């Protein structure tokens, strides 16, 4: 079966391929030239549903969307749903990571705990939309380390590990990430 991955983010698309290839033929919204909707909702779940429904309506095919981000506990959950926007129009995550470090320093905060969230929504054209959420907790580290992955991976060390997501073999991240956990939930939701 073919599934539209409603993302224009190459890092996410790679991980979605790694998690679903062999089960579905994955084609991305970018490859189909689908328009990108404005993310106007106020939660990961709301934005995931908005993106999945939008792609299903435009493509006429079953569509999967991911809305995700990094929440820093000492920053009251920022950047959270604004994680992509903290990179600015250039999507400069080096800048976004330095901004997090600067804000923590300005506050004199020593708590480096943070978590990634991924909301995954599957929408059928003119049909239902199923949504789930996965989360992975960890600690931030500065300066950034590693050159794999994408986004905020170089500053995030998941609980129980010593490497950042950007230092890990991709297969290791794909097995324990917020996105992997959301996929587990999704499988359970679709089978039940
Ligand atoms: P699409 O909406 O097209 O899927 P996007 O990049 O705009 O792409 P989001 O609005 O969900 O997606 O923003 C998520 C941001 O959070 C993303 O750009 C990364 O900076 C960050 N992020 C999400 N998952 C991540 C991960 O696994 N590793 C590192 N950073 C991640």
Automatic annotation (TrEMBL):
Known cofactor(s): Mg(2+)
EC number(s) given by UniProt: 3.6.1.66
Reactions accelerated catalytically: dITP + H2O = dIMP + diphosphate + H(+); XTP + H2O = XMP + diphosphate + H(+); ITP + H2O = IMP + diphosphate + H(+)
Enzyme class: hydrolase
Record's cofactor remark: Binds 1 Mg(2+) ion per subunit.
Subunit organization: Homodimer.
Family matches, as NCBIfam families: RdgB/HAM1 family non-canonical purine NTP pyrophosphatase
Function, in words: Pyrophosphatase that catalyzes the hydrolysis of nucleoside triphosphates to their monophosphate derivatives, with a high preference for the non-canonical purine nucleotides XTP (xanthosine triphosphate), dITP (deoxyinosine triphosphate) and ITP. Seems to function as a house-cleaning enzyme that removes non-canonical purine nucleotides from the nucleotide pool, thus preventing their incorporation into DNA/RNA and avoiding chromosomal lesions.
Family: Belongs to the HAM1 NTPase family.
Entries under PANTHER family matching the protein: INOSINE TRIPHOSPHATE PYROPHOSPHATASE (PTHR11067:SF9), INOSINE TRIPHOSPHATE PYROPHOSPHATASE/HAM1 PROTEIN (PTHR11067)
Protein name: dITP/XTP pyrophosphatase
């Amino acid at each position: 079966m073919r599934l539209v991955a409603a993302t224009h983010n190459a890092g996410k698309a790679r991980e979605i391929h790694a998690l679903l290839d062999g089960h579905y033929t994955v084609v991305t919204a970018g490859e189909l030239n689908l328009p990108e909707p404005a993310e106007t909702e106020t939660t990961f779940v709301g934005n995931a549903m908005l993106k999945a429904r939008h792609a299903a309506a435009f493509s006429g095919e079953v569509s999967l969307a991911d809305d995700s981000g990094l929440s820093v506990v000492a920053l009251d959950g920022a950047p959270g749903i604004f994680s992509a926007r903290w990179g600015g129009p250039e999507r400069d995550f080096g800048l976004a990571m330095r901004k997090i470090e600067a804000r923590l320093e300005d506050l004199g905060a020593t708590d480096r705990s943070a978590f990634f969230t991924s909301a995954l929504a599957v929408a059928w054209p003119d049909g239902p939309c199923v949504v789930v959420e996965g989360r992975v907790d960890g600690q931030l580290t500065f300066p950034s380390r590693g050159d794999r992955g994408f986004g905020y991976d170089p500053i995030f060390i998941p609980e129980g590990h010593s490497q950042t997501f950007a230092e890990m073999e991709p297969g290791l991240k794909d097995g324990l990430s917020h996105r992997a956990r959301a996929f587990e939930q999704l499988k359970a939701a679709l089978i039940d």
